[in-house]
Amino acid sequence: MKNFRFYFAGITILAISILISCRKEAGGDQSPTVTANAAAKKTILDAPAIACGTGSTQTSINLTVTAGASGAPAGFSIQWMTLADYTASGWPSNSDDPANPTSFCKASFSGNANLSRYSLAAGESVNVNVGEFLFDNGASTNCPQALKCGTAYVFRAFAHASSTLSKSAFSANTTCSTLACGNNGGCTFTQGYWKTHGPTDCNPSSSGNVWPVTSLTLGTATYTDLQICSILNTPASGNGLIALAHQLIAAKLNIAKGADASAIQSSLNAADALIGSLVIPPVGSGTLAPAATSSLITALTAYNEGATGPGHCD
Asked: If you placed Cys at 131, which of 16, 28, 60, 244 could pair as Cys (CB 3.0 to 4.6 Å)?
């Protein structure tokens, strides 16, 4: 009986050993491993894309910037230069080098600024106007001046670094052009021109005051030339009333200088009606939502920059 017990125990041990061996052969090594095709941890944002937008003028180019698959939560930057300079020398290796071509410029559109519209989700797009910037929250540039008419420009962009991912690589180059030069007489100037060719604080180069009037009526309120200058020098910062006033002032100065108003008169009337009795900052404290003013700003900008009306002064 004792020998039988030893025999039975041996058979049991042998069976267990065979079972364990079979399981190893069927399942292989069950210890955890990192598979060869495991996705590497993402460390860099995807590059945005740039496309030429609609509504470019003789002095500005409208761009559509679209975030990549990882978005652009902290915003993006755009660089540009004339196609002629790019063909001659390519992009500069150091964007801050003072020896860079004079046409090389850059602008930042921060997604972290209060009320910024430049924090983009994956695949989200935003339009920006290069040449006559709307300096809303988060936007800044080293080249606020107008672009040249009849000129091709090359653009590229990158997404700003976020709290978890590094900045993206540059987008592919995109080439867009301003409208051809030429006007029908009684031409128009941009609001940037009037901002730097007026009285006192609107004449940084002391080149002479060329404003044709010493007061303007915006809405139902009349402003002196010094008050108009202070409005032009006030960033919109998300206030649609200020942004609208900038283009309305330019349009009224252009008309006072001799530009034909027929193409823009209905927009002028609508802008004055919308402003009404609001007093524009910094003279007053009136405000309007950007959504309420955007279509009028677009129409007035097109007139001032030569896309409509008699054309921009070359």
From this structure: 60
Domain annotation covers residue 104: yes
* Comparison of pLDDT for 188 and 132, the residue scoring more: 188
Joined tokens for residue 49: 């894309």
The CATH number of the domain where 163 resides is what? 2.60.40.10
Alpha-helix runs per DSSP H in 184-256: 191-195, 225-232, 240-256
State pLDDT tens for residues 14-46: 444 544 454 444 444 444 444 444 456 789 999
What is the number of structural domains in the chain?
2
**115-174 pLDDT, tens per residue?**
889 999 999 999 998 987 666 778 889 888 889 988 999 999 999 999 999 999 999 999
- Is residue 156 located within the same domain as residue 200? no
Neighbours of 183 (CB within 10 A): 17
Residue 75 near residue 110, CB atoms below 8 Å: yes
How far apart are the C-alpha atoms of 154 and 39, rounded to whole Å? 35
- Phi/psi-derived region of residue 199, left when phi > 0, alpha when psi is between -120 and 50, beta in every other case: beta
C-alpha distances in angstroms, 30 versus 25, 26, 33? 11, 10, 9
* pLDDT tens digits, one per residue of 229-258: 999 999 998 899 999 999 999 999 999 999
Nearest to residue 234, comparing CAs of 244, 221, 220, 224? 244
Rg of the Cα atoms in the chain:
31
Q: Cα separations (Å) of 20 from 10, 33, 96, 103, 285?
A: 16, 21, 68, 75, 83
Coil, strand, or helix at residue 302? helix
Short-list 195, 197, 216, 221, CA closest to 286 = 221
Where in the sequence is the domain holding 161, given as residue range(s)? 49-177
User: Which of 188, 289, 186, 196 has the alpha carbon at shortest distance from 236?
Assistant: 289
**Nearest-5° Cα angle at 114, 113 to 119:** 55
